[in-house]
Specification:
Strand order of the largest sheet: 7-8-9-6-10-11-12-14-13
CATH class of the largest domain: Alpha Beta
Pfam family, one: GFO_IDH_MocA
Number of helices: 9
Number of domains: 2
CATH topology of the largest domain: Dihydrodipicolinate Reductase, domain 2
CATH architecture of the largest domain: 2-Layer Sandwich
Helix content: 25-40%
GO molecular function: nucleotide binding
Number of strands: 14
Structural class: alpha/beta
Protein name: Gfo/Idh/MocA family oxidoreductase
Order of helices and strands: EHEHHEHEHEHEHEEEEEEEEHH
Shape: globular
Length: 321
Amino acid sequence: MLKAGVLGAGHLGKIHLRLLQQSENYNLVGFYDTNQQQAEAIASEFGYTLFNSVEELIAAVDVVDIVTPTFAHFEVAKQAIEAGKHIFIEKPITNTVEEAEQLIALAKKHNVKGQVGHVERFNPAFTAVSEKIDNPMFIETHRLAEFNPRGTDVPVVLDLMIHDIDAILSVVHSEVKHISASGVAVISETPDIANARIEFDNGCVANLTSSRISLKNMRKTRFFQRDAYISVDFFEKKCEVVKMKDVPEQPDDFAMILQNAEGVKKQIYFDNPEIPSNNAILDELDTFANAIYTNTTPIVSLDQGKKALEVALKIIDCFSN
């Protein structure tokens, strides 16, 4: 088992602590948090070992799970990598693209693995259809959340939209050509609502909307491609796949058939896969362990985390132009 330690014991950090303790791939060694009073309370309640410093924790483990605020990601990740430790780092990977590039170079130099916590990649509704998404040409996403003061220190793009940016980049195999966007700050000092349009070299267009001041939660993405429509509900963990195929010579009596202006007939059918229940955070941690064991590239690599951040920051730049 891999010895693991957690840096940061806030809301998400406590979830990581619990899941690492449950995992069969890790031995949870302990954690460190700068809030001493809170850290001592967590250690007392759950029996986790509390370390006195970042350095002590890094020295005691094989894998450092970084769940600190984003501004601290780079420095602690740099320390861990230079100590020869593998890193799991929550999204966004760092504050700047330059910092992300430095971490990628350091990880390569020290021969360690790194994975970024883009958890929606492990959402069962997305994994159930990801292989069916083939050259989408239009993508529409809505990620709406009820207001929560936690996380409002960063723009909604880095708080919410970056999940969809990463998912889109994982299925659109083309370079970004152009980005346009607008954002509005309603309650926070940074935008709470944002809309972005991403155009790719291959002609694909993605339209993304995110809000953290909505009256209800919604996390839906729709993929449109040749002869298929795929819908993913990340919140309800549901998906729908609607495909079209040439009409057989003898169609079923109940077949749904469309005919275009040229007289071409297509049959509509549903191909909805089974969606197994899972814990997406546990899955991402376990697949990272597997990447370390098998010396393979993690599912969400540091480079992919950097690319998602790069697009997110370009969207934010549009707000001031």
